[in-house]
Amino acid sequence: MTRLSALFAFLFLASCAATGPAEYGAANGGDFGYRETQIEADRFRVVYQGSGGMPPEVVEDFALRRAAELAIAGGYDWFRVVGSNISGEERGGVSLGAGLGTGSYGRNTGVSVGVGGDLGRVGAQDYFTAQIEVLMGSGEKPDHPNIYDARSILNTVGEI
Fold it and tell me: Could you tell me which of 92, 98, 94 has the C-alpha nearest to residue 122?
């Protein structure tokens, strides 16, 4: 029983360990951060995977920031978001439950009664991933709600 209690305590503490928001940057392997794929000369898919506890709005902003960096690096002035998706998942934590039951033993017969309940998850965190597909452009920015001025995004969505 002592080993089981120690294991439960370890799992509980491990699940509660704070994973603060990651700083803006490139993903290293499967870590959090941005990745991009160049689809055509002026078209990119940008993915930003946020760390645990990072709000979805920040994850989306970081994807836009990366698109702005790519635009400026390629000599473009603006970019248009032609597709976007944000997804989230809950990871980590420990599921807690409780139960109580009775029964019969030996040659005696009896009726079993059981009561159980789910106490929920402890220590779980939400992780969000934003994916955008962008087309780059030069010159005066067209007036469209999905078109962003690259330099303006870099000034607005600063590194955190």
Answer: 94
116-126 burial, b at 16+ Cβ within 10 Å, e below that, comes to eeeeeeeebbe
Helix (H, G, I), strand (E, B) or coil at 110: coil
Q: Would you say 131 and 46 are in contact if contact means Cβ atoms under 8 Å apart? A: yes
pTM of the entire structure?
0.69
pLDDT in tens, 19-78: 444 578 899 877 799 999 999 999 999 999 998 888 999 999 999 999 999 999 999 999
| Contacts of 54-58 spanning 24+ positions with Cβ under 8 A | 54/21, 54/22, 54/127, 54/128, 55/128, 56/86, 56/88, 56/128, 56/130, 58/21, 58/160
